Every structure is written in structure tokens, then in C-alpha cells.
Amino acid sequence: MTFSELIEKKKHKIELSNAEIEWLISNYVKGVVTDYQFSAMAMAIYFNGMTNRETAALTTAYVNSGKTYDVSKVQGFKADKHSTGGVGDKTSLVFSPLVASYGIKVCKLSGRGLGQTGGTIDKLETFPGWQSELTNDEFIKVVNEVGMSLIAQSNDVVPADKKIYALRDVTGTVDSMPLIAASIMSKKLIIENDGLILDVKTGDGAFMKTVEQAEDLANRMIGIGREHGRKIAVLITDMNKPLGKAIGNAIEVKEAWDALHGKGPQDFNELVATAVGVTLLQAKIFDDLKTAKKDVYKKMQSGEAAHFFKEFVIAQHGDWSVMENYDQVFTNKHKIEIKTKTKGFVKYNQAEGLGLLSMHLGAGRQTKEESIDHAAGIYLNKGFGEAVEVGETIMTLYTNKEINPEWEQQAYETFTIVEKQPKEEVIIKIISD
Ligand code: URA
Q: Whose CA is nearest to atom 6 of ligand 1?
């Protein structure tokens, strides 16, 4: 087998065999296939696509490129949830303790944020000392003792994805459906969980700009799951506006903590209750979603699942005291209030703009090397659809950087004030295998 034969086949839309895909990926990881050769292949895949069988084989080759986690010593049903990335998305921080409170174990690999999207690992690093990388044994210990553990992808986990994602980033091939599907699913398959929820975001602040694209990605990932014997449910959810009211890191952790005590914003609560509810169906704890969600809402209201989150942070060596002294620890030099000029109802329509603004305030990174300021971010004093009077504060920007005079204008561009109260629909569709 030579690389030239494989690129010729893909160029002429001839399916690659499983063995050919395995050869291609293992030799690219080893450096036998060069970056310029693999760039040509990525572009051929971008234009000619991959069948479901090819995409599943690609995912397997990714998984085989590195270490997997052995969770056979975890007792009970094991669950995971993954989001394709959005603005203000702190769902995993509330989903995991709630799921754990039902005796289900959460064994989860999470990511960092890039560009307008936030990452769960960055948010958890709000707690000084919190460890994102654990050995297999440490991971199992935290899961068994606390009920949940979230960890970061270390260098030896799916190295093929790390190398190929970096190449895609600079060769215009990030938005290839089979490459996205294999990238996401490989990182889910390395932990053998019993249930998996995928939150595929669609809209301005998401990768998938249209519902059709989101459904296409969802079906491909369900197909990969089927080939690997995994049951998956997909939530297609709205990302034209941010999720909840907090955008940043510490500020999102605080919102998550509030949601665990029944004080979360309504759109966020609904997404969490649905994701947990679907997991409860997968674990056969409930058999209809309506009853499951009702029970989850009750748990959010009572605050009974919150302690799982605190115990998990402490078990991974995080300093919990920062949450108790939030206002003293997470200080900002500047607080910019954005006020309304007209009366009406708030309609956020640029989630991406808000995510980018939060990044510029210091809460996110433009390149993987940049560090972030956990205190920076945005709070939406008025949520989507809320009534406002002239002169009321719509949102507050928090930063420790020098003020850029363009920020205010950028903030104004992310919303309009409309006469009729706009409706919000966070869950667009649920697709279950
Ligand atoms: N998230 C991933 O992990 N991979 C992609 O390719 C896109 C989004």
C-alpha cells in the first residue's frame, strides 16, 4: 500500500477499506505519512466525504492511536455527555452532579475552549489546584468514591485527533462532517460508558450554523456509535443566543452552583433537565421523559445534588474556598454596564459576538497557548425575552485588561430591543438511536 494509491482512490470517490484507513492514520501519527500528504487527503475527504463505514473505521483508527481508559472497575451504569461547543455552556457542571445523585456514574473526558466557545476544563480550573489529568486508577477512584469525574485529554489520548485537528485548523478542513464526527466520537469511545448524550449546538454561536447541518452531524455520530455498539441520544439545541446569563469561567461556575440550588436561568435549567432526563431513560430509571424531567427539576429545586459537585472538585485537589469568597477572589479592575436606549424586550441574536467579546475581555483564548483570566466575563443582567425600561442595565462586562473603546459598540451589536416578547426554544429536537 502506498499513500499515492490511497489519495488517488479518495480523489476519485472510491471507498477506502478499513485496513487502508488504519494504515493511513497509524502512519501519519508515526510521521511516515507527511503533513503535506495528509493535507491533500483531508481536502479530498472534505470534498468527497466518507461513507458511514469509512467514518466508523476512521474513528476506530483514531481510538487505536493512543491509550484508552479501563472503567470496568466502576460499579453501576456509566454515563457521559458531550457538547459540540457553545457560548455560556456550563451544562456538564450541573448535569454530572445531578446524574450522580441517581447513583449513575459519570466518567467524562472534557475539553478546553477556543475562540468564542468556552471549555469545561477551563471553567473547572477556576478552583486553584484542581487537577485535570488523572491516572486511570485515580480516575476510577474519584468516580467510585464521589460518583463523577471529569478529566482533560492528555497527550497520549487519541494522539491522531490532536495531530490531525492541528493540521485541519491550518488547511481549511475543520468543517468536514466526517472529520468532525470521528474527532468527537473517538474521544467518547475511549471510555466505555453505557450511555452517551450528545448536545449538538446549532446557530450563530455554534459550528453547525443550520439545523440541517446539525442533524447531519448527529446522524453520522449515531452511525459511528451503532458500529461500535453504543447507544446514543442527540439533543439538537439552539446556540443563536448564549446559554444562561453568565459567560466566562468563574462566573459560569457560580451560575452552575446556583442552578444546582434551584436558582439557575430557565433556558439553562431546561437543557440540563432534558439531558439528565434522557440519561435516566438510558439507565432505565424512568421510562418517560416527562416524569424523568419533573424529578430532575425537583432535585434542582431542593439542592440535594450540589454536594456531588463540591466533593468532586475537592477530590481532584481543587480549592473550594474560592466559591465561598467569590467576591474577594474574582475581582476585576473594570466593570462596564451596557444600558438600554429603548424600552421593549431583549432579543440576543449574536451568540458568537458575545463569545468573542468575552474572549477579548480575557475569559477565552485566541490561540491554544494563551492563558485566561478566570475572573473576566459577561453577565446578562437581562436574559433573552426579558422586559426592559430605558436606561436599565442589559449586561455587565468584567475585565482586568485596559478598556478597549470598541467593546461597548460590540456589546450593543449582540442584541436588539423588540416590541413583542420573543419566544425561546432551547431544545430543537431529540434524536434517539
Ligand atoms: N470538536 C472536536 O472535538 N472536534 C472537531 O473536529 C470539532 C469540534
A: 180
